[in-house]
Structures are given as C-alpha cells and as structure tokens.
C-alpha cells in the first residue's frame, strides 16, 4: 500500500513537483495538497495521511508552528519540513517541533524521497542531512578554550608528547596531563587523534592544525 502524502506549500510549482515525484514512485501517493496552514488543517483531518510535507514559510503563517501543532494532534503522523534555506537555527527549530525530517527544497531527489519514506516509518525519529555538522557547530559556539588550552591544542597538533608539552609550558608533567585531560573533556574525546578531529570539525583548528 502506498504512503499517503499531503503537501503543504504556498508555491504551486513546489506542490506540482512533489506530486510528479510521487507519481514516479509507486510506494508514494500525494492524496491532497494545501497552500496555507488553514487549508492544511482541514485537509489533513479529512485525508488522514501517513506523511505531510510542510514548507517553513506559508502565506498565512509559520510552517514550523503548524508542524508543532500537527505533532501534538497526530503523534503518529510523519512530518517532513521543507525549506528554501538550510540555516542551522531553522534545522534545530524543526527538530524541536517534533518533525520527522528536515530537507532542503533544492536537495537531490533521492534525499527528499528518503525523508518522506523515513517519516512514514519513523515519525518520532528526526533525520536531516548535515545534522551532525550542525550539532558540531552548535557545540563549538558554546565551547570556550582558555589561552593555555589553546596552546595545548596547538602542541598536540604538532605531535608534541605530554612530557615535551610540560617542558614547553614550564609546568610539571602532571600539570600538563591535567591540561590535556581538561581539553579532552571539553571536546568530548578520549585521545589525541579524536581531539584533533573534533577540533578540526568544529573549526578550532584548520587543516594545518593551526588553532583558529
């Protein structure tokens, strides 16, 4: 049985595109569409879809607010949030609404199909391409290294051993170990390689291991 989809989007071209996309995939069927949140509420109540795609921006309001309302009203409904802009804050707001998936309108067709199919079988489980990187950027925004921790990170990046770090910083080996341990704790890692990878991923260092 095909997954029943309702498309909620203020742009007729987007609604048409999703209908054509579903028509090419026998496991999906767009059973109705709405251009506003007001229309969507009535249509969803009548059509009982498995999945609804909701644009972030709607002519009569905020699509994320509608997604939150739908999640509260229909716990088993798959909700795919579609956006023209993939900013991290929009992604996290979609996550907080209880959406099942977040995907850009310009994403590859397979990515959009995967989001709809995911929502149909795991309504309460959130998925989004780039979620891990967005989480890392959020972590980095709240992560503050002391000047000494930045020195230690720089030395680790140069392959300097802990005893050599102690000599470079004119501290005891145990103090150097403490600095390294605190750095690992802040980065959520347990060894040098993980620390450098984490620091590179969140922008604390560049590919030449120079602190940002």
Integer-rounded radius of gyration: 23 Å
- Write out the strand line-up for the largest beta sheet, numbering strands in chain order: 2-1-3-6-7-8
Which quaternary structure do these chains form?
single chain
Low-confidence stretches: none
- Cα shape: elongated
Largest beta sheet, briefly?
A: 6 strands, parallel
Distance between the termini: 53 Å
Relative strand content: 15-25%
Number-wise, the strands total 8
Helical fraction: 40-55%
Element pattern in H and E: EHEHEEEHEHEHEHHHHH
The overall pLDDT, averaged over residues, is: 89
Number of helices: 10
Structural class: alpha/beta
For this entry, give a set of tags.
six-stranded parallel sheet, alpha/beta, 212 residues, single chain
Outline the structure in words.
- The protein is α/β, with parallel strands linked by helices and 212 residues long.
- The chain has helices at 12-23, 37-47, 63-73, 88-97, 109-121, 131-141, 147-157, 162-169, 173-187, 192-201; strands at residues 3-8, 28-34, 51-55, 57-58, 61-62, 78-83, 101-104, 127-128.
- Strand 7, helix 5 (109-121) and strand 8 (127-128) form a beta-alpha-beta unit.
- Helix 3 (63-73) packs parallel to helix 4, helix 7 (147-157) crosses helix 9 (173-187) and helix 8 crosses helix 9 (173-187).
- It is elongated.
- The termini are far apart.
- The mean pLDDT is 89.
């Amino acid at each position: 049985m095909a997954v029943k989809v309702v498309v909620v989007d203020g742009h007729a071209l987007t609604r048409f595109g999703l209908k054509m996309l579903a028509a090419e995939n026998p496991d999906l069927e767009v059973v109705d569409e709405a251009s506003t949140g007001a229309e969507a509420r009535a249509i969803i109540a009548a059509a009982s879809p498995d999945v609804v795609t909701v644009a972030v921006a709607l002519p009569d309001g905020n699509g994320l607010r509608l997604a939150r309302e739908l999640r509260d009203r229909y716990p088993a409904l798959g909700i795919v949030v579609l956006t023209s802009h993939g900013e991290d804050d929009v992604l996290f707001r979609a996550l907080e609404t209880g959406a099942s998936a977040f995907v850009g309108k310009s994403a590859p067709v397979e990515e959009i199909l995967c989001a709809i199919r995911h929502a149909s079988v795991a309504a309460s489980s959130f998925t989004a391409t780039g979620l891990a990187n967005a989480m890392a950027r959020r972590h980095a925004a709240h992560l503050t290294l002391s000047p000494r921790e930045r020195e230690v990170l720089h030395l680790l990046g140069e392959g300097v051993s802990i005893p050599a770090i102690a000599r470079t910083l004119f501290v005891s080996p145990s103090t150097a170990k403490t600095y390294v341990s605190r750095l690992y704790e802040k980065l959520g890692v347990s060894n040098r390689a993980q620390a450098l990878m984490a620091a590179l991923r969140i922008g604390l260092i560049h590919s030449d291991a120079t602190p940002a």
